[in-house]
Each structure stands twice: as C-alpha cells, then as structure tokens.
Sequence to fold (221 residues):
Amino acid sequence: MDFLSPVGAGRRTRGAGRPGLTQPGVRAKTPAFDEPVSRRLGSARADQSQPARQQKGDHAMQLTTVRIEKPEAVNFILGQTHFIKTVEDVHEALVNAVPGIKFGLAFCEASGKCLVRWSGTDAALTELARKNALTLAAGHTFIVFLGEGFYPVNVLNAVKAVPEVCRIFCATANPTEVVVAATEQGRGVLGVIDGSPPLGVETEADITWRKDLLRKIGYKL
Fold:
C-alpha cells in the first residue's frame, strides 16, 4: 500500500509500498490479516455455525412421497406432458395400439381451471386414475391404469410418441411411491420409488428361469 506525502497529494513518500516503511508520525493501518490467527479462525467457525439466512425471493420447499393406490396386479404408466389435448391424444394412442384395450386416464391441468381431466374405456379404471391424480396433484402429470391382460410393453412406445408427452416416470405393476416437491406455487414429481431394492445378483439358475419365463409367456421364441 502506498502512503501519500502530507505536502503533495500527487507525490509518494520514498520507500512507499515496501513492508515496514511508513512516514514518520503516520501510523500504518493494520490489515485485517494481521489479527491473531486464532481470532480469525474462531470468527470463521462462528460464521459457519450460523444458519443460512433466507434471502429475499427464496421460497421453502417440502419433499414428500405419495403412494400409488391400486389393486396389486394392475399396471400403470406415470408421465409428464404439457398440453390439455393430452387426454384425447393419449386415449387415441392407446386404442390404436391395442384395439379393445381397457384403461383409465387422468391428467392434472396446470393452468386455467386447473382441473383433473380424464378419459377411458373402463369406468373403474377411470375412477382409479382420477383418484390418484388428485392425490398426486402435480401439474401436467398424467397417469394411465391398464386393465387385466393389458401391459405397458404393448402401449408404451405409442404413449411416448404422443407429441405433447415430455417424459415417462415409470410403467409398472409394482408398489410405487412418487417423490413430490411442494412449493408455494405448486407440486412437481422428482422421481419414483418403483418396487423393492435388489437382494443380490442372478445366478446361472436365475438366468435359465428368466429365459424360460419369457418364452412361456410368448415374448421370445
């Protein structure tokens, strides 16, 4: 740091800028880093121990899980979309993929009237979809419940090909919990917990069982 001469604002004292050289009678300012290390470390620890202050514009977020309520054997598809015509378009995609399919569909509208929009070919499955959509209450999500004998593997690509569908969170018959974030604005799906965690790695016997199962139910030759 340079010190100005008392007789000229534009003149510098000889030796200015070198450590330990100051003007006679002028007390050098002690920089903050000259304070004892223990004091600085203690201050830093104190700062770290203080809870973060909420800044203006920050909002709280709450995480929760919502269990999908359904009969054990029923398959469902949970996804995100972005347009009100999802209900009709997904309906058409399903019936075109598998003629005679039984299903119920519900969609959480995220603006305007913010209603649960719905459709389907089976009254009980449609009511199941409406009920779960209301419980999830996450904007622009949709859920499809499939009837007995109908499976996601037969319709999933058709659903994903619907122009307004953004993503699929899961397609399963497993017990499922949906991880939901809630803020002052609304609710959104962060992900899903689909079934149970692995208990180990398959053995040769397990591989044989898997391959036999796929051929038994007709998915492999």
